[in-house]
Amino acid sequence: MDYITPQRDILFSLSEVLGYCAHSTQLQNAESVDDELLASILGEAAKFVEAELNPLYRSGDEQGCRLEGETVSTPEGFVEAYTRYIENGWPSLAAHSEFGGQGLPYSMHTLLSELLGSANWSWSMYAGLSQGALNTIFAHGRAAQKQRYLPHLVSGSWTGTMCLTEPHCGTDLGMLRTRAEPNDNGGYTLTGNKIFISSGDHDLTENIVHIVLARLPNAPAGTKGISLFIVPKMRIDEEGNITGRNTVNVGRLEEKMGIHGNATCALNFDGAEAELIGPPHQGLACMFTFMNLARIGTSIQGLSHCERAYQGALHYAKDRLQSRDLRGAARPDLPADPLTTHPDVRRMLLTQKAYAEGLRLMLYDLACTADLAHEGLDEAQQKLAILTPIAKALATELGIECASLGVQVLGGHGYIREWGMEQNLRDARIGSLYEGTTGIQALDLLGRKIVGSNGALLRPVLAHIDQRARRSDSPHAPVLLNALALWRDTSEALLLAAWSDPREIGAASVEYLLLAGHVLLGYYWLCADETATAATAQSDEPFYRAKRKTAHFYFQRLLPKIEGYAACLRGGAQALMAHDDDEL
Amino acid sequence: MDYITPQRDILFSLSEVLGYCAHSTQLQNAESVDDELLASILGEAAKFVEAELNPLYRSGDEQGCRLEGETVSTPEGFVEAYTRYIENGWPSLAAHSEFGGQGLPYSMHTLLSELLGSANWSWSMYAGLSQGALNTIFAHGRAAQKQRYLPHLVSGSWTGTMCLTEPHCGTDLGMLRTRAEPNDNGGYTLTGNKIFISSGDHDLTENIVHIVLARLPNAPAGTKGISLFIVPKMRIDEEGNITGRNTVNVGRLEEKMGIHGNATCALNFDGAEAELIGPPHQGLACMFTFMNLARIGTSIQGLSHCERAYQGALHYAKDRLQSRDLRGAARPDLPADPLTTHPDVRRMLLTQKAYAEGLRLMLYDLACTADLAHEGLDEAQQKLAILTPIAKALATELGIECASLGVQVLGGHGYIREWGMEQNLRDARIGSLYEGTTGIQALDLLGRKIVGSNGALLRPVLAHIDQRARRSDSPHAPVLLNALALWRDTSEALLLAAWSDPREIGAASVEYLLLAGHVLLGYYWLCADETATAATAQSDEPFYRAKRKTAHFYFQRLLPKIEGYAACLRGGAQALMAHDDDEL
After folding, report:
1. What range does the domain containing A565 cover?
2. Which of A256, A476, B237, B557 could connect to A555 by a Cys-Cys bridge, CB 3.0–4.6 Å?
């Protein structure tokens, strides 16, 4: 099933609802983007992904990656598509002009990410991780490091990775064992084993820049003794010329449920040449530059899988004739009515549609907030702190849910390879696992951010939604205000409960995040409804009518899920902690 | 990750909660089963599945089935395991003694199904579908047909299939096109294409008995013109001796998301020799004998995947050390605390445990109800009519949810093949699709059964739970009564709404079924809690303490989900039906 870029909805979200043009104009560190430029970039990107990446969606899954000798071969066509990707200058879209970038806002890369990811998530990860490496070196590298690495990452002639996980630790990076010893030439010799390295090796570029967490000799124990290193796959000299192979070897390619087109590697660093980046022992803080961007990037995966599932399911449901309208034949001219006639099929389709379009607004707003945070605005930093874990966890969970609905709408046909819906689910499933599981995002949100600030970080977010809803004349505003009250009350109850037992945080965290995420989606749907309502006064485009109806659906049929989340989390920690080990 | 049969919990469910011994004694048409016999059959079955089927779990998935020439080869070891299965007499467990069966109640086969299915779902489907073919021929076959086919199906020397779906119709069987023409020798010549035939071909037995829906010449249109046929893969004579190949050919093996060890075939019937079974044009009614059993069988799949996911996740969570208790180190002697320390991990594990154990009670009660219905008891027939669609849809949906939690508990390790959790999810995913999707079960429940009887079929079920809860002194009884009130009120509101617009049925149906299913699980957990509470007066076995704590968890943290289902379905049909076709 082919992916068609939803250009109309992307423009609606960015231009009409979020006022992207005005947003970009206020940025000091980026070029501004007017509506014409936006539409033109979007159109070109759509052409690229539909022509180059979408055709590799199924073959990439079927062929997967192969470890041949010392290096990984990607599926047929991946190299050629990547060559075209860099020829077209896509990697440099949002990079600083000093290093050859086009200087557009970071949020423009997010838009590109949606298209790349929806057309071919596995392929897009090779390009996506480079952006994290690029931004990490830009933020923390010395001038010489920037000069050596950034032009290659900006042009896309090299890609990047992030190397955190080891066999015995993923979430708990304080336990990591990879060691870096200073050597005679001012550099370091790095030794250790990393696993689950996405895009860890491939044949797309001549070099790969690994950003690696490791310990210096005599480093303090735990997370305060971790430093950050650059370890190129191929050694380079001062000018950035490749001088030979570094001792970074692919130990294994993981056999995974999905994303078979992306090489998930176990990497062995056997005394590899490494450069320290950022201050010693501050590696985890520096890595958060990478990780926060990677979390936004991963949230896009959720949107991509919702969108792809919706397109596939809708296409099938419009064509497939099966059973009759419960009131009697809707299309007596046909042997049976189309699936779109049946209320429960519509419930599934509209769930996908409402989540995809709502997430699009949420994630583009998140990207714009990242633009502003990048400008050093405190308010934006704070909003980002709340929004990032919600967006990452919510979007990937909904990506899985909608991908599964994509299978469900097609019935048995969804379970076989032919229609691409089962691949979409297999690919989606990793979203809630990497870059911090849903449980970790939820702890970050409720524990570190909300309880950690005693509610201070949350209050402006709630106040903003409250004000927006109060001055709205949308029929959904009172519904949103009720939902907001539930979010606020739940937050206050948990702030109190955490005082007496911090385990109440972990016990409530995931359901709390889902509740908060659904209220936030309600906020974005209110904004969309207002914009569409205003537009329908001047236009009878079905797009705006559809938008209002989908908003109505969201408030009537999806937002009420929060009643269930709230009721479950009220059950509290004790019900979770009562079993002794031998009672599990 | 190995599967270990939960013998203690199975005996608790059957003997202690459901009073299986007394149940079996009252059956006229089956041998009675005392506690000793039950434990001994369970123990032998556990030995068989753990030694023969569990070792083929991963290799069966990796190797899959292959179409070689005219026949399908199953993965290595499948044939040998099947040979042992019939040598041990397992297929005949619940079959009538007239045809070589052991004459035990049908519910004993359900117990066996749980073990076979948990150890290796793909393998178990070869055996499982035979039971449906066997029961269909037993119920509708002429004496000669029974004599020819049943001894082979009972002994397991032949297997069976059910052939309904065609490329253009699955749910809507009224559209099927396969035709059966009478021939000169009193039989029929059957021509057509069937797809998605589970166990459609294989190398386990010398013959396969296909039960096929087709149309006679001049049959009325729609479902009233469908007849049922027996089409053996190998032609047989009057005595049941094989005389040569019938014209049933495997057109294709489907490439699926999971259950790779089971051969899902497209079958071409090219003028195949067929026998009519049951009255002409009554095929669909006859097929429901098969389908209702297949639905109970498929509900077992949900239980199996919950159980397997729980065992895998628990094993990993007890061993894996990562991060610290939110109150400070729980195990300062270790480099980090076990995953079981963390509230959200416990939430996921207990969700799996509470669903697996609750479903076990529900499905064994369903099987006992089927025993009673088989005796011709109207009351049991009516209970079965309500319970079957709930059990099939709920169990398979929860099987998918728990399998996904199994992946989630393991983090990145859940996504790779090594631990078996991703296979469990891929295998589980088909459960809500075949034998009638969740949407179809929900329409059957709310539309055909509840609205169709104007609530009459539902009332005794509600009354029974009400009475049980009212005379219970469990602390959870009031919680269950509240939940029951919500089920009742929701049912009444929908009975009313359906009068004005039948689409309200389809719009509410899936969330209604999930609500009803969770209240029913609450009923079973109340029963379990009472039994365990009484037992703890005499025993300090951790098993009973655990049972009470898991009941508490269910009522505190899972049953409240019904608030969300109720709130969402209250959104009604209009929000689903508003979009025009060009607005989707």
Report:
1. 437-574
2. A476
**Residue B559 placed within a domain:** yes
**What residue type is assigned to position B452 of the chain?**
G
Confidence band, pLDDT 50/70/90 cuts, at residue A1: confident
Written as one letter, the residue type at A231 is V
Q: Please name which of B372, B394, B392 lies closest in space to residue B381, comparing C-alpha atoms.
A: B372
**B326 in any annotated domain:** no
Token reading at A114:
């949606």
Q: How many domains in chain A?
A: 1
Q: Count Cβ–Cβ pairs < 8 Å, chain A vs chain B.
A: 284
**Which two three-digit tokens encode residue B252?**
């294709």
* Neighbour count for residue B102 (Cβ, 10 Å): 18
Assign residue A69 a region (left: φ > 0; alpha: ψ between -120 and 50; beta: otherwise). Answer: left
pTM value > 0.90: yes
* Beta strand A227-232 pairing with A234-236: unpaired
What was the pLDDT predicted at B525? 98
The answer to whether A137 touches A323, Cβ cutoff 8 Å, is no
Put simply, whether A323 touches B (Cβ < 8 Å) is yes
- Separation between Cα atoms, residue A93 and residue A106, nearest integer Å: 8
3-state secondary structure of A200: coil
Active site positions of B, annotated: 435
Closest CA to B350 of A426, A568, A498, A430: A568
DSSP string, A366-398: HHHHHHHHHTT-HHHHHHHHHHHHHHHHHHHHH
Q: Do A568 and B557 touch (CB under 8 A)?
A: yes
Residue A72 falls inside a structural domain:
no
Question: What is the longest distance spanned by two Cα atoms in chain B?
Answer: 84
Residue pLDDT, tens place only, B54-84:
999 999 999 999 999 889 999 999 999 999 9
String of DSSP letters for B510-538: HHHHHHHHHHHHHHHHHHHHHHHHHHHTT
Active-site annotation holds for A435: yes
Answer yes or no: is pLDDT of B517 > 90.
Answer: yes
Q: Is residue B68 part of a domain?
A: no
Contacts of residue B473, defined as CB under 8 A and 6 or more positions apart, other chains included, come to none
Are residues B344 and A257, on separate chains, in Cβ contact within 8 Å? no
Residue among A422, A435, A504, A511 flagged as catalytic: A435
Nearest to A294 by CA among A201, A167, A437, A392: A392
Instruction: Tell whether the torsion through CA atoms of A290, A293, A297 and A302 is positive or negative.
Output: positive
